[in-house]
Automatic annotation (TrEMBL):
Name recorded for this polypeptide: Class I SAM-dependent methyltransferase
PANTHER family from the UniProt entry: METHYLTRANSFERASE, UBIQUINONE BIOSYNTHESIS O-METHYLTRANSFERASE, MITOCHONDRIAL
GO MF annotations in UniProt: methyltransferase activity
Organism: Caulobacter endophyticus
GO term, biological process aspect, one: methylation
Keyword Manganese: no
Organism ancestry: Bacteria, Pseudomonadati, Pseudomonadota, Alphaproteobacteria, Caulobacterales
Entry keywords, A to Z: Methyltransferase, S-adenosyl-L-methionine, Transferase
Domain Methyltransferase: 200-296
Residue numbers spanned by region Disordered: 1-22
Length: 403
C-alpha cells in the first residue's frame, strides 16, 4: 500500500518552513525507497552469493540469524543497504531538529499554556531518577534520546519524537501516529466480550499518541499515561489538551509506579518492551499484576518473538539492534514473555500472544471516511482474517488477565 496520509496538525506540532518540510518529506521517501527498492534484494544476495560463500568457508550452511549476519556483512550490497538505512535514520532526526531549534521557545510557551488550561493532571516530581538504560544511549539514533533536555520546561525531544516517528514509519502509524493504540482499542472492542475498563494505564507513553485512542473509545474512563522522560510527558499533556482530550500524564517508572494496588482495569503498552532492559522487563510485568484489579487485563503491543519466524527474517529485523541503537531489540524477542507473565502471578490459561490488526490497514480496506475511533466502530465489529491486508497487517500483542 502506498501511504498517502499526512500528519495531522495540532498546536504544538513543529511547523516546518517549505524547505524544511521538503527535506523531511525527502527522508520519508528515502526510507520508503530503501524498504521497497533495496530491502527486497537482500534475499537473492543471500541465496546466490553470501550463503554459498559461508558454506565454502565453514563447510556447512548458515544455521541461524548470527550465521546469516556473518555471511552478509561481507557483501557489498548489504553494506550499501545498511549504510543507506542508517543515513536515512540520521537524516530524519536532523531535518526535524532544524525546525524545532528555530521554534523551541515558542513551542515551550504554547505547551505551558495548553497544560495550564488542561483538565487532565500533569504529575512531574521534583526528584526523579531516569533509568540508566534510557539515558545512556540515544535510542534509535534520536539526538538526546527520550529524556534529553536543553531548556527549562523542555519539550524538544517530545516534539522531535512526534514528528520523527511519523517520518520513521513512513506514515504507516496513521495521521496521528496512533495506529498501535487504535489497533489495540479495536482488538479490545472486538475480542474482549464487552469489557469496559473504568481506569486505564498506558506504560511508556512517550508523547501520548497511543494513549489518546483509549479516551476516545472509553470516554468515561480515567486514563493515565506514564513515562520516565519529563520532556515526553510535558509534551504529551499539552498535545492531549491541544487535541481536546482529558488525559492524565505523569513521570513514573513502569517498574515501580506511585499508584496503589489494584488501581486499573486495563494496563497497556506500545513498543515499550523492546526498549527496556532484560532486568526491567520482569519488574514491569510484576508491577502490572500489582496495579491490576481482579479481572483486569494487561496488553503489551510490540514485535513478534523470534521463535515465530525463519532465521532470515530474524536477521533482517535484528538489523535494528546492530545499526539503529536498539540494544534490547533482539534480546526482547528471545525473552520468554509468557514465562514472565506466569512468574508475575497471571494464570497460565489467561496468557497468550495474538494479533491486533493494524487500524490503518483496516481503514484502507474499508475505504473508511476519516481516521478516528468513531469511524472505526464498524471496522472493529467485523471479523478479521489474518493475511487480509498488506504490507504488515497486525501488531503482536501479549495478553494476560488477572485472576
Amino acid at each position: 500500500m502506498l501511504n498517502t496520509f499526512q500528519q495531522v496538525d495540532h498546536p504544538i506540532l513543529p511547523k516546518p518552513t517549505h524547505d524544511e518540510g521538503s527535506r523531511q518529506e525527502f527522508t520519508k521517501s528515502f526510507k520508503q525507497f530503501i524498504q521497497q527498492g533495496l530491502l527486497p534484494g537482500l534475499g537473492p544476495v543471500f541465496g546466490v552469493r553470501a550463503a554459498k560463500a559461508f558454506e565454502r568457508e565453514h563447510g556447512r550452511a548458515p544455521a541461524d540469524r548470527r550465521d546469516i549476519r556473518s555471511a552478509m556483512v561481507k557483501d557489498l550490497y548489504f553494506q550499501h543497504y545498511a549504510a543507506a538505512n542508517r543515513i536515512a535514520q540520521e537524516l530524519l532526526w536532523e531535518s526535524t531538529n532544524v525546525t524545532i531549534d528555530r521554534e523551541l521557545p515558542e513551542l515551550i510557551e504554547k505547551a505551558r499554556g495548553l497544560s495550564a488550561s488542561a483538565k487532565g493532571q500533569l504529575d512531574l516530581p521534583e526528584e526523579f531518577e531516569t533509568p540508566r538504560y534510557v539515558t545512556s544511549i540515544d535510542i534509535h539514533c534520536m539526538p538526546g534520546g527520550y529524556a534529553g533536555a536543553v531548556a527549562p520546561d523542555d519539550i524538544s525531544t517530545g516534539a522531535l519524537y512526534d514528528r520523527g516517528v511519523y517520518l520513521y514509519a513512513m506514515g504507516y502509524m496513521g495521521p496521528f501516529n496512533d495506529d498501535m493504540g487504535r489497533s489495540v482499542c479495536n482488538y479490545v472492542n472486538r475480542r474482549l466480550d464487552g469489557f469496559k475498563p473504568k481506569r486505564i494505564l498506558d506504560l511508556g507513553c512517550t508523547v501520548g499518541h497511543s494513549t489518546l485512542p483509549y479516551k476516545e473509545l472509553f470516554p468515561e474512563a480515567e486514563v493515565w499515561g506514564v513515562d520516565v522522560a519529563a520532556p515526553q510527558v510535558r509534551y504529551a499533556h499539552a498535545r492531549a489538551a491541544g487535541l481536546g482530550l482529558e488525559v492524565n500524564f505523569a513521570q513514573m517508572n513502569a517498574e515501580e509506579t506511585r499508584f496503589e494496588d489494584g488501581s486499573f482495569d486495563l494496563i497497556v503498552s506500545h513498543i515499550l518492551l523492546h526498549e527496556t532492559s532484560g532486568k526491567a522487563m520482569p519488574r514491569i510485568f510484576n508491577e502490572c499484576h500489582r496495579l491490576l484489579a481482579p479481572g483486569g487485563y494487561m496488553i503489551h503491543a510490540d514485535l513478534p518473538p523470534f521463535d515465530n519466524m525463519d532465521p532470515f527474517t530474524q536477521f533482517i529485523l535484528d538489523n535494528e539492534t546492530w545499526y539503529n541503537n536498539e540494544p534490547f531489540w533482539g534480546a526482547m524477542r528471545e525473552t520468554d514473555q509468557v514465562a514472565l507473565a506466569k512468574a508475575a502471578g497471571f494464570p497460565p490459561e489467561s496468557i497468550k500472544f495474538d494479533t491486533a490488526p493494524m487500524a490503518i490497514m483496516e481503514f484502507v480496506a474499508q475505504q473508511a471516511a476519516g481516521y478516528s475511533q468513531d469511524a472505526s466502530a464498524a471496522v472493529s465489529d467485523r471479523e478479521f482474517a489474518a493475511g487480509e491486508y498488506a504490507p504488515g497487517g497486525g501488531w503482536e500483542v501479549l495478553i494476560a488477565r488477572k485472576a
